[in-house]
Design brief:
Layout (H helix, E strand, L loop, with lengths): L4 H39 L3 H41 L15 H5 L3 H35 L14 H14 L4 H32 L13 H10 L7 H11 L16 H5 L7 H9 L3 H5 L5 H20 L5 H12 L19 H4 L5 H14 L3 H18 L6 H20 L10 H13 L8 H19 L5 H51 L9 H21 L13 H8 L2 H6 L1 H22 L7 H28 L17 H4 L6 H4 L11 H7 L29 H11 L5 H14 L5 E6 L2 E10 L5 E6 L3 E6 H9 L3 E3 L5 H21 L1
Antiparallel strand pairs: 1-2, 1-5, 2-3, 3-4
């Protein structure tokens, strides 16, 4: 079958939404499974069972980051495969394939396969009852989105077996023994069912907001049942609404009442300058492909009479309403400018807003814009044109009130209204098409504006001026077409692309440094593991092992990654390890003091050369070299004593002898020998090691950064709580951090939820060096432990997960809601109309 073009974008958005939520889904499942595994271990009285539960819990903790990274891609692949399979499927309804195998097939399975089969069946059997209610609803909506005439639950690309299969794939990839794998899956099952139920709720809401109507179930009657029905009453003989509905059902048409009947609005409502068409009608008009064919009609004479009266009213209002001067508008702007960025209250705007006349000219007047609307309504020939005009005004009104967008950008949208209204005369439903150039222009400008959080900054001025020029040119074209909107959008996007390339070059070095540091750390971990398997590390001093496992492993990894000549041991940094370990073996060195005297200079020279190549601060290694010198000191002093004795025998003057007992560093300084790798290996899960130059290039925020301190300690006026309407997430985070009685667990859960929402291209407000910056998340490490944000000019800001949590807790990192502006306007238009009616009544 061929998927409908008009819904392909919606199917992609549904897939993207599922992929976006997958990481946080699996992370919450893992946390819930960890809790239940721990409870089961504590309750168990069987030693073997307790050990298996403990192993499963350890395995889950070890692979949690990998699951969080891998599960989204598995879900995306599974859904895409399901969508591809639909194209090769006919429309004859077939029963949903069962996952239960026959007894004969089970007997032929290997034991591991039987175990996997049982766990898979248990997973689906647990999931289905939990999601059954929402799954039924999703099946009907998804069938409509796929363009199917009837419900085909087996073709739902997000049906439980598809998503359960993605979970099974992730579990299989972990490479754990079957016992641990099955225990992990068993404790993941119930939380996964709950998360799947929440996902279905999100997808259902998305489909409904896009105007998708439920497909109908096909009524299948057996021959006996049909005969019984015929004996009762033939369908043709039934009268009234019930008979008509049954006849429609038999003919394959929807039941009467499944869709609301269209009722023509009053002519006064259609002619009004203030959109009075019901939201449900506007929604169906934009998103129901057959609306025009079923409900469009020529306008009656009474409509034109109502429009004539409306034009007279609008002219009278325009003549009697004085326009505020630009000086008054400028004074209000200056009051806002005097406030810190995050303290500025949201500026309310709508289609009746007065704009600066110096910037916008004639369209600055709300009366002029209204007269344009009414004049176009007088030229309309059909109901669809009038509703299209009302839809544009209602959407611009809603977009103008979206306080997430800076006021000058929303003013530009208000000024663009006349051009959009004229476009709606030829294409009334264009606002319902996400691919239409005019809608893309509005959305692209809004999304680009999220790069800025200060409307008075020089950088924002460079952004808004080309936007204003485009709006003025479109308003000046009385017959602007979709092609004209597309050309202007391409010009803006070309300009933005050049700016992005410039910014990208600025933070490229930092990103390369982070990537290289990750690769180097991964290789260093392997080198350190190889050190731990050597026989000559037994009995070695702790301080020496610590140096090898951490610092020197990095030196070797760095040399191997930067080597361009294909050497086995570039720099000889691996070979020197044998000499170093031998030199600190006191018994071996005392037996061959001449050899130690010979190799010590080479050891020290090689170590210092390697540390210098790595960019390691020499001060950080002073303690190690002091301890190394004290380990070599007894043998070197013995050599000097022997030389002194030879000189004395020959009659030459000698220096006084030193006490040979003060040989070795004490345990407190150098540590005891024989420590294990597990005790000494540094914890690199938080971040890889970076040299000072790499830290500077990546804009790394150290744990001692003042931004990580509570907001109260920041510069007054800089870290204050923003308006909730402007940034609800940031305000809530700051309020919770300041509330002395706030529940710690609830706050921690909220911070984790915010962290889970962090994805590449997410915008945040970041308090750095005494000012609030708008930054975008451009990179995260595979295990979710490092984040790199980039602010204006390509300035990188890199931090660990722990630092992110501190910033969120202290209100210095605030997520910005940058979801699609037009889509949000459509979904909230109904609520805003209700609020306005309530306010008017009050």
């Amino acid at each position: 079958m061929q998927l409908p073009n008009q819904h392909s974008t919606l199917l992609r958005r549904s897939t993207h939404e599922a992929v976006f939520l997958a990481s946080s889904m699996i992370d919450r499942c893992a946390e819930a499974a960890r809790v239940t595994l721990e409870e089961a271990e504590n309750k168990s009285t069987i030693p073997l069972q307790r050990q298996q539960l403990a192993d499963a819990m350890v395995a889950l903790a070890r692979h949690r980051a990998k699951m969080r990274t891998r599960f989204p891609s598995c879900i995306e692949t599974a859904i895409n495969h399901a969508l591809e399979a639909i194209k090769d499927t006919d429309l004859n309804p077939t029963p949903r394939p069962s996952n239960l195998a026959s007894l004969e097939s089970v007997t032929l399975m290997a034991e591991a396969e039987v175990s996997q089969f049982v766990e898979t069946s248990r997973l689906q059997q647990t999931v289905l009852p939990v999601v059954e209610e929402r799954l039924t609803r999703l099946d009907t909506l998804m069938s409509s989105a796929l363009g199917l005439p009837v419900v085909r639950a087996d073709l739902n690309p997000m049906r439980p077996e598809v998503l359960c299969g993605a979970l099974m794939e992730v579990i299989e990839e972990l490479g754990e023994p079957p016992e641990a794998r099955n225990l992990m899956l068993r404790h993941l099952t119930r939380p996964f069912a709950d998360e799947l139920n929440r996902l279905y709720e999100v997808i259902i809401r998305l489909l409904e907001e896009k105007g998708i109507q439920e497909a109908r179930y096909r009524l299948r009657l057996t021959p006996g049942a049909m005969q019984t029905a015929s004996n009762i009453m033939p369908l043709q003989a039934m009268t009234g609404p019930l008979g008509q509905g049954m006849a429609n059902l038999a003919a394959g048409a929807p039941m009467q009442g499944q869709a609301q009947a269209f009722q023509m609005p009053a002519m006064a409502d259609l002619a009004s300058a203030e959109p009075a068409v019901p939201y449900s009608m506007v929604h169906d008009f934009l998103y129901q492909p057959q609306w025009v064919a079923h409900h469009d009609a020529p306008l009656p004479p009474s409509y034109y009479e109502a429009v004539r009266r409306e034009m007279q009213t609008c002219a009278a209002v325009a003549a009697s309403t004085p326009m505020p001067s630009d000086r008054e508008l400028y004074a209000a702007q200056q009051e806002r400018r005097a406030l810190p960025v995050m303290e500025r209250p949201p500026q309310e705007l709508d289609v009746q807003a007065v704009l600066p006349q110096k910037v916008w000219g004639e369209v600055a007047s709300p009366q002029a814009r209204t007269q344009t609307l009414v004049q176009l309504k007088s030229q309309a020939k059909k109901v669809s044109q009038v509703i299209g005009l009302d839809a544009v005004r209602a959407l611009i009104d809603q977009v103008a009130g979206d306080v997430r967008v800076l006021p000058p950008v929303r003013e530009a949208f208000v000024a663009l209204e006349p051009a959009l209204l004229r476009l709606a005369m030829s294409d009334p439903r264009f606002m319902g098409d996400e691919t239409h150039p005019a809608r893309r222009l509005v959305e692209s400008i809004a999304q680009r504006s999220f790069k800025y959080n200060d409307e008075f900054s020089k950088e924002f001025a460079q952004f808004i001026e080309p936007v204003r020029r485009v709006v003025r040119e479109l308003d000046a074209q009385k017959d602007a077409t979709a092609h004209d909107f597309d050309n202007h959008l391409q010009d803006l996007e070309s300009r933005w692309e050049e700016e992005d390339q410039s910014d990208s070059a600025s933070h490229k070095n930092g990103l390369q440094s982070i990537h290289f540091a990750h690769d180097r750390q991964a290789l260093a971990d392997k080198v350190a593991w190889g050190f731990s398997l050597r026989s000559d590390v037994e009995g070695a001093p702790k301080i020496v092992l610590d140096f090898l496992y951490n610092t020197w492993a990095l030196v070797i990894a760095h040399a191997q990654l930067t080597d361009t000549r294909g050497q086995l041991d570039p720099g000889g940094y691996l070979a020197v390890v044998t000499d170093l370990l031998w030199s600190v073996n006191h018994e071996a060195a005392m037996r061959q003091p001449a050899h130690l005297f010979e190799i010590v200079p080479h050891i020290v020279q090689t170590l210092r050369r390697g540390l210098e190549m790595l960019g390691h601060d020499p001060k950080d290694s002073n303690r190690f070299f002091d301890a190394l010198m004290r380990y070599h000191k007894p043998v070197l002093r013995l050599r000097r004593v022997r030389s002194a004795l030879d000189a004395e025998a020959s009659g030459a003057p000698t220096s006084s002898m030193m006490d040979l007992n003060d040989d070795l560093p004490d345990a407190a300084e150098a540590g005891q020998g024989g420590s294990s790798f597990a005790e000494l290996k540094a914890d690199t899960s938080e971040q890889p090691w970076l040299a000072q130059r790499e830290l500077a290039a990546a804009g790394f925020m150290p744990s001692s950064s003042p931004e990580l301190e509570p907001a109260a300690a920041a510069t007054p006026g800089k870290a204050s709580v923003p308006s909730p309407a402007r940034d609800q997430a940031g305000a809530a985070a700051t309020a919770n951090a300041a509330a002395p009685g706030a529940d710690a667990d609830e706050q921690q859960a909220r911070h984790r939820a915010d962290l889970a929402r962090l994805r590449e291209d997410t915008w945040v407000d970041l308090f750095s060096h005494g000012e609030w910056l708008r930054a975008k998340l451009t990179w995260t490490s595979g295990n979710g432990s490092l984040f790199m944000f980039v602010s204006h000019g390509g300035q990188p800001h890199t931090m660990t997960r722990r630092s992110c949590e501190k910033l969120l807790r202290n209100g210095h990192l605030r997520l910005v809601d940058s979801s699609e502006v037009v889509n949000k306007a459509l979904s909230e238009m109904k609520d805003r109309k209700k609020r306005r009616r309530t306010a008017a009544a009050a």
